[in-house]
Design brief:
Blueprint: E1 2-12, E2 22-32, E3 37-40, E4 46-49, E5 53-58, E6 70-75, E7 78-86, E8 93-95, E9 98-104, H1 108-111
Antiparallel strand pairs: 1-2, 1-6, 2-5, 3-4, 5-9, 6-7, 7-9, 8-9
Length: 112
């Protein structure tokens, strides 16, 4: 996992209540990603399996991520993460010193 300091974390709630995004400035996160799994079958078709990225937010809490659907992490104007919070694969969990959670980055083909 790579550590990034002085990042801004924006948490967005998908709600009809019109809640504003929560922004946390000057945070420390660790981001770990796993490469996609690509397999070609015997008939020549290629399948791609994407893996969630793991985030450890120092000082964050699982409670902060309640009702959140999207997470954006920016460092010095560069977007490190802009992804959907993955609540199906090990939902946010408090661990010593912060919170661990997973996000699903959009497939590059879907962004075009």
């Amino acid at each position: 996992m790579n550590q990034f300091v002085n990042v801004d974390i924006t948490l967005v709630e998908n709600s009809t209540a019109g809640n504003q995004p929560k922004v946390f400035f000057g945070q420390i996160v660790e981001i770990g990603s796993e490469s996609d799994t690509v397999v070609t079958s015997v008939d020549g078709f290629t399948s791609r399996g994407r893996h969630p990225s793991e985030i450890f937010w120092h000082g964050g809490t699982a409670r902060s991520l309640k009702h959140i659907t999207n997470v954006t992490i920016i460092q010095s104007g560069a977007v490190l993460i802009d992804a959907e919070l993955n609540t199906f694969f090990g939902g946010p969990s408090d661990i010593t010193g912060g919170v661990k959670f997973f996000v699903l980055k959009p497939d590059a083909a879907q962004e075009e």
